[in-house]
């Protein structure tokens, strides 16, 4: 879905292109942190840190793999102390 007008999209792209690499990195890092906080705020209360990490991992990466690939990857990431 894209509800941004072409004019605003041009302005936004111009803004991003005017940033230094450091400014751009900090802006993207800030956006990622904000998204993470939003996701964490929607999780059920009482989850352990490990449960939160597993859920974040699923939210971020499940769509990038087949179900079988994802389950193998998740198992490797979260078993035998690999957290």
Short key terms for the protein model shown above:
83 residues; mainly alpha; 2 domains; 71% helix; 0% strand; elongated
Describe this structure in words.
- The protein has 83 residues and is mainly alpha-helical.
- The protein folds into 2 domains: 1-42; 45-83, no CATH class.
- It is built from 4 helices and no strands.
- The protein is elongated.
- The chain starts with 5 loop residues before the first helix and ends in a 5-residue tail after the last helix.
- The mean pLDDT is 92.
Quick structural summary:
With 83 residues, the protein is an all-alpha fold.
- Strand percentage lies at under 5%
Rg: 18 Å
Which of globular, elongated, flat, extended, rod-shaped describes the shape?
elongated
How many structural domains does the protein architecture include? 2
The major sheet is characterized as: none
Mean pLDDT: 92
**Helical residue percent?**
over 70%
What's the number of extended β-strand segments? 0
The helix-and-strand class reads mainly alpha
Distance between the termini: 35 Å
